[in-house]
Amino acid sequence: MAMDDDELMSAVAGGDDTALRELFSRHAPWMAARLRTVLPAADVEDVLQETFLAVWRGAAGYRQAGAGGWMWGIARRQAAMWLRRRGQPDLLLSAVDEADQRHLADPADIAVLQAELAEAVAALGPETGPQRQTWRLMYVEDRPVSEVADLMGVPEGTVKSRAHQIRRLMRAALRRNDPMPEAGR
Q: Where are the chain's structural domains?
């Protein structure tokens, strides 16, 4: 019997490279297709390799929240780092967001998703507040913890603590809009 993605992620966390190869074979094709919309084709393979290396390293932190989406988040960050290293950081978010939206079938779904995300971001407090600034620097601009700490003039531990609180607040805000609560799945 074939393993589902969550079982494969657990196996990867335990050091099973065969499980990683299976995840790669399942998910790399659609990820590559999406990445090709924003990256030169010659660089997509490099970004995918970095993505699955990060999946290997971070599998223990995976919390069964949808492996495809979790890995796509890693791929987006890897693509952002690739573009940043090449001096093109502004290209990624809008281009990848457009690619993501093209993969949503219904424009109404897109509008609902955007409204839910806006509500989740608003839950972080005022735009000039420390949580919103931390969110923008870490998750929109994809800056590392050390750089965020330097820019905000706070210790790295404070940034990590805020990032944890941000993820908790956003999860709670997004769950309020979830038509199928966790227990019903």
A: 1-103, 105-185
